[in-house]
Design goal:
This protein has 19 helices and twelve strands. It has helices at 7-14, 21-33, 58-63, 66-77, 96-105, 116-122, 132-146, 148-151, 155-167, 176-193, 198-215, 226-251, 258-263, 271-302, 304-324, 331-334, 338-351, 382-386, 425-442; strands at residues 80-85, 88-93, 110-111, 172-175, 359-361, 365-367, 370-372, 377-380, 443-447, 454-456, 460-462, 467-472. The strands form four sheets. The chain has a five-stranded mixed β-sheet with strand order 1-2-8-5-3. The structure holds protoporphyrin IX containing FE and 2-acetamido-2-deoxy-beta-D-glucopyranose. Protoporphyrin IX containing FE is lined by residues 1-4, 127-128, 139, 142, 146, 188, 191, 281, 284-285, 288-289, 292, 353-354, 357, 414-416, 420-424, 427-428. Its cofactor is heme.
Length: 474
Amino acid sequence: MVTMISPIATVICMLVFPWLAYFAYYLVSRVVLWRTPADRKKPALPPGSMGWPYIGETFQLYSKNPNTFFALKQQRYGPIFKTHILGCPCVMVSSPEAARFVLVTSAHLFKPTFPASKERMLGRQAIFFQQGDYHARLRRLVLRAFMPHAIRDTVADIEAVAARTLRSWDGRMINTFQEMKTYAFNVALLSIFGKDEIGYIEELKKCYYTLEKGYNSMPINLPGTLFNKAMKARKQLDVIVAKILSSRRKRQAKFNDLLGSFMEAKEALTDEQIADNIIGVIFAARDTTASVLTWIVKYLGENPSILQTVTEEQEGIMRSKEMEGDKWLSWDDTKMMPMTTRVIQETMRVASILSFTFREAVEDVSFEGYLIPKGWKVLPLFRNIHHSPDNFPEPEKFDPSRFESSPKPNTFMPFGNGTHSCPGNELAKLEMLVLLHHLTTRYRWSLSGSEAGIQFGPFALPLNGLPITFSLKT
Ligand code: HEM
Ligand SMILES: *[C@@H]1O[C@H](CO)[C@@H](O)[C@H](O)[C@H]1NC(C)=O
């Protein structure tokens, strides 16, 4: 998520709203933050520089690839350092031990934190923003719908979506990321609403696209702004979800999808809570999965021998299915794709689409002799951990075979760890495997050359969403 709630977008938006607070902040920060008496009986702040008041080191962060900023800081100050971006003093951590401390063992000392405009847009009661009992209850309901036992019967439906998606690319030049977004959206909708609510889905999609356009715009709520349109679309989404809820209540059937889990009597949520969490799950599920799939297409395109091995693995599965007269992939088939699985893992490591996540210290915390003051942001830097030669030798090399043995705890966290870790990870892996089965056995593609480079939008992505030409194998 950040988090999937795109941390970088989050940060970018934090740029715009507090200009008014700038002057006040300047005064306060001069007096309080930078001028604390040296003899205070507290542990010292971590090393690092805070840059200019308010602006902090924002320019340094955005003048380069943000990943370069993190890497340089770590080189200079070590795995725990302080900095100051977009109005927030923060501590960035990039050792497995520190990530474990923040996300797992002392998670209660660090709460999720997002700009208010993001909360309003997704819905204040969505899972990412919560702590404590309500969070635990939501997680139970989400996990119930997305754990292996619950999704294993949906493999054939996901496969149908994958096959249909790939067919629609045949003979075209496509923007890989845009097309993967459509795929991930359709799979997410299937896992939330099942196959039944087709009547409402087109309308829901339209509103969601408007919401998305406003999400990364400046949070200025005046008529005509993207933000304003997005807020209206958000209200419209509540109406659509309410219609779906009432149609389900009339039917009184039992549903095994996410909506069914949210509506189940014993732990039922309010309609508003349901809407906030459905929008939230779509948000968490779509661009993340689509970015990873886009990187996979790129890395396979650039590494013909790895593509060959994956293709052979998938052809083997296809042949054995044909012999048994099975038409559709099963859950068990997807557990017999070790090469393909390692390609997915290595892609998530190298690309580290969620470079980091955000928390906020709820009290003064001391860690390894350093003070993390109450109210400061704390950013576990997943990407630095995934690119440390201590954890992964020759870290910049794309080499799926490194996952033949499992990585050490807290060195590989594409789905985070601890209380807010990704409850959709099984579904994400499943839909990627299923798509890759059809992609490698039936189709060929070529990268349109000259597409080196990364864009951040807000996840790390190949430049221009990776245009490719795509066709059926002959
Ligand atoms: C490859 C694709 C995906 C990646 C890399 C990914 C990554 C992550 C990460 C790193 C977090 C934790 C963020 C944090 O600790 O701050 C997270 C949270 C979350 N993810 Fe995913 N995710 C993916 C796909 C999905 C899918 C498909 C779904 C739903 C179907 C989903 C639903 C969620 C939700 C609801 C949370 C919030 C959990 C909480 O706050 O308790 N994600 N994801
Ligand atoms: C999450 O943290 C626990 C406790 O440190 C650890 O056992 C587990 O391996 C970690 N998970 C990942 C994905 O690193």
